[in-house]
Amino acid sequence: xxxxxxxxxxxxxxxxxxxxxxxxxxxxxxxxxxxxxxxxxxxxxxxxxxxxxxxxxxxxxxxxxxxxxxxxxxxxxxxxxxxxxxxxxxxxxxxxxxxxxxxxxxxxxxxxxxxxxxxxxxxxxxxxxxxxxxxxxxxxxxxx
Length: 144
Description:
Layout: E1 2-5, H1 13-32, H2 37-51, H3 56-88, H4 95-123, E2 127-130, H5 133-140
Helix pairs in contact: 1-2, 1-3, 1-4, 2-3, 3-4, 3-5
């Protein structure tokens, strides 16, 4: 699922700290903004925009964190609005709703622990590529 590896060069202390902070921002946003999925994405976008002209190592990890939060936005938004519709309309809780919410919770828990792992490894200066997001980040984030 995730692969720690050495980066093309050895990132400096400041680079490792800033890159790991992109994952820390995601974790804090998940904890604080859990009820409102857009807050998670906005916090990560702001951090990404403030570091988009940084070194490739930092930019790469900010992009990977942003991509993971983007997918979380879709998953959590569906669950959020589905729950709101149950509370405020005549819609009822169905097996599909329960299955979706269980799947969303599992995905959120898995993403939380993978983000925590990436935060720790990136802080050590290791390059961590997630299974899906790493390949997509390689396409989107070019070295200058």
